[in-house]
From TrEMBL:
Domain Amidohydrolase-related span(s) in chain numbering: 17-359
Stored PANTHER family: 2-AMINO-3-CARBOXYLMUCONATE-6-SEMIALDEHYDE DECARBOXYLASE, ISO-OROTATE DECARBOXYLASE (EUROFUNG)
UniProt xrefs under Gene3D superfamilies: Metal-dependent hydrolases
Protein name: Amidohydrolase
Single Gene Ontology MF annotation: carboxy-lyase activity
Length: 371
């Protein structure tokens, strides 16, 4: 298929930063040059990162995003550049990877080795292919000390803009055992991204607070509870008081829950603030100052309600656009952004992300492209 012929008639006539662009491996053998041989046999096992425990009848990635020749969607940077970046005039794409579930593996050393190998693979095979790609450092959270070492190993790379891990974990991320990760993020001036993935799998707790759902539909409806739980923990435990420059992005968790949680936290803070004497501001103030949220998978009310929701959560500061390419439920830029008034559209499309990732000193679009 000649992907060079693909063009979107409705691509935005302005710069655009995609904050959730999934690159993947052609096969797990791609990791072998970057891993000690002792781990190689595990890469040949089904689902080398962890066993999946719930049947998912809908494939994770769109078949039409495959470069052909039997390769997985998202495994060829040249195809992805034309199929997504060129089609929608994407100025920068933050690569978020496909192996986030390493944090659910029972072996912390293997998980850390997989994450490190995937990072090197990305920097070797994706980042050099186009200046629009930006890298995330994948870490496994089972051992925060190893995660911090990985951040320090790659944190100075000029195309690395954030650290990424799955939002699911055995303990809430506000607890102090995760501080080495936050210290390393601050030390390297990097954002921390918490992305959906691994809920209920491997060593992680059940998907819901009441046990394991029967179907993927049931699971998919409640995935945002993990984002809510981690945000609640990080704010209430005082992480942003301990690390006042830390910024955290909540990726692929939707948005409608954010105003609800902000209001509930502020309300309860009035009556129970003696339990959290380290908090010097209302919880919502920490959220607006330190946290960002990506659009996909955005809830889809009517346009008036969508804009109202954006206003309630200060979207002009807190919301960033994401496609979630090449997953089956990914969003095109025109679907969400064209529903917004101009002031919100520009902020969500690229200004918020440009500020967060400190891209303002660099061109947001390719030379000669529109802004």
């Amino acid at each position: 298929m000649d992907v060079s012929a693909k063009k979107s008639k409705s691509s935005l006539k302005q710069g655009l930063i995609d904050c959730d662009f999934h690159q993947t491996l052609k096969s797990f053998d791609d990791l072998k040059p970057y891993m000690p041989r002792v781990w190689w046999p595990r890469l040949s096992e089904p689902e080398a990162t962890l066993p999946i425990t719930i049947f998912k009848p809908v494939p994770l990635s769109r078949r039409d995003a495959s470069p052909g020749n039997g390769l997985p969607p998202g495994s060829d940077p040249e195809y992805a550049k034309v199929d997504a970046l060129d089609r929608y005039n994407i100025s920068k794409a933050v690569l978020t990877g496909s192996l986030l579930t390493v944090s659910a593996h029972n072996n912390p050393d293997y998980a850390a080795a997989v994450a490190s190998a995937f990072n090197d693979y990305t920097l070797d095979h994706w980042i050099p292919t186009d200046d629009r790609f930006l890298a995330s450092i994948l870490v496994a959270t089972q051992d925060p000390i190893l995660a911090a070492k990985e951040i320090d190993r790659l944190g100075s790379h000029p195309k690395v803009v954030q650290v990424i891990c799955t939002v699911s974990s055995r303990e809430p991320f506000g607890q102090r055992r995760f501080y080495p990760i936050y210290e390393a993020c601050v030390r390297n001036n990097l954002v921390l991204a918490l992305h959906g993935g691994g809920e209920g799998d491997g060593i992680n707790p059940p998907i819901s607070a009441v046990g394991t759902p029967t179907t993927n539909f049931e699971r998919h409806n409640i995935l945002a509870i993990h984002h809510m739980s981690q945000l609640n923990s990080i704010v209430c435990e005082g992480v942003f008081e301990t690390f006042p420059t830390l910024k955290v992005v909540f990726v692929e968790g939707g948005l409608a829950w954010v105003p609800h949680l902000m209001w509930r936290m502020d309300k309860n803070f009035k009556g129970m603030r003696n339990e959290v004497p380290w908090l010097k501001k209302k919880p919502s103030e920490y959220i607006i100052e330190h946290c960002r949220f990506t659009t996909q998978p955005i809830e889809e009310p009517n346009n008036e309600e969508l804009i109202q929701m954006f206003r309630m959560m200060r979207a002009e500061k807190t919301v960033m656009f994401a496609t979630d390419y090449p997953h089956w439920d990914n969003d095109t830029p025109t679907f969400v952004l064209n529903k917004l008034p101009e002031d919100l559209r520009r902020r969500v499309a690229y200004e918020n992300a440009a500020e967060l990732y400190q891209l303002n000193s660099k061109p947001l679009v390719k030379e000669g492209g529109p802004l």
